[in-house]
Design a protein that fits this description.
The complex is a heterodimer of chains A (84) and B (212). Chain A has 84 residues and is mostly helical. Chain A contains four helices and no strands. Chain A is 73% helix and 0% strand. In chain B, 59% of the residues lie in helices and 0% in strands. The chains are: A mainly alpha (84), B mainly alpha (212).
């Protein structure tokens, strides 16, 4: 397996959606290829950093305001009217 | 390895009955649906538009449109999947207006090769996020993801931040499963490449590529 072949499978490798056979081939490649090992580890870390640090949380005060605005607009509308 | 997934929209047991009640005009039921998903919709809208004011509009417009179109919701997909599809379309429209362009779409810049081939192969510090304070880290993450084309960052946000499956993401965006996978790979690699300059190990002095 070459590094380019490894890269093509990287997303499925990280998502754990590969067959046992393909996964074993990738593990074998990782065993001796330091560069792919670093790319795999740092890509995994990239995903974890974005997942664990939610950068766009909705502040509670804004949430309340938005909720009130949505419900007030809905009161003036009819549910499912587009298909009525 | 364990799968990197965090689920939204999983509690479907009573969801269909909430949707049915809302269709019949029960505002309390619809209010409960808003409570369940407003945070997710806000995050997705912020990631696509990069603009808090636009994101607030998207949250309001998406829920209102969902309410007005409940009659078209057939229940053969999850309410959340259907709602996000509406929200993504609203967010892309906002982005178009903001940029004063007609061409912003999920296909934009998809042919770029940038980041497809890793150039930065120095390892990162063991706990890279601890190098920076929370607000500095947050700025780095925002700046980095905002540099991705809309089609890439939308797929990354739905799959990796919101924890949706490839199939759900494909359905929400009207893309094929292979198209989602291809965009996701390139989004992940581009983000990795861009974050490397902040997070790579400094143990070799200047953080330049280590001798292999």
């Amino acid at each position: 397996m070459k590094c380019n072949d490894f890269l093509k499978e990287l997303t499925d490798y990280l998502d754990g959606t590969l067959t046992e056979g393909t996964k074993a081939e990738l593990d074998e490649h990782l065993h001796w290829c330091h560069e792919c090992h670093v790319v795999m580890n740092t890509t995994k870390k990239t995903i974890e950093i974005y997942r664990d640090n939610q950068i766009y949380e909705l502040p509670e005060s804004l949430r309340t305001r938005l909720h009130q605005a949505i419900m007030s607009k809905c009161k003036g509308a009819k549910p499912g009217k587009k298909n009525a | 390895m364990e799968t990197i997934q965090k689920r939204a929209g999983e509690d479907v047991s009573d969801e269909l009955s909430l949707v049915q009640a809302a269709k019949a005009g029960d505002l309390e039921a619809f209010s409960e649906l808003v409570n369940r998903y407003d945070r997710n919709v806000f995050r997705i809208a912020q990631h696509i538009t990069h603009n808090e004011e636009d994101a607030q509009d998207v949250v309001q417009d998406a829920f209102l449109k969902a309410y007005q179109n409940l009659g078209q919701f057939q229940g053969n997909s999850k309410f959340y999947t259907w709602l996000v599809r509406i929200a993504v379309n609203e967010a892309l429209m906002k982005l178009r207006k903001r940029r004063n362009e007609k061409t912003v779409s999920l296909d934009e810049d998809v042919e770029t090769e940038e980041g497809s081939i890793p150039r930065e192969v120095a390892d990162w510090s063991p706990n890279p996020e601890q190098i920076y304070g929370q607000s500095e880290l947050s700025d780095i993450l925002k700046k980095t993801i905002q540099g991705l084309p809309p089609g890439f960052r939308t797929v990354f946000v739905l799959r990796d931040v919101e924890g949706l499956s490839t199939e759900e993401t494909a359905e929400m965006l009207g893309l094929s499963v292979p198209a989602v996978k291809s965009r996701l790979l390139r989004a992940r690699l581009q983000l990795r490449e861009r974050l490397a300059k902040y997070f790579r190990s400094r143990k070799n002095g200047d953080g330049q590529r280590e001798v292999q």
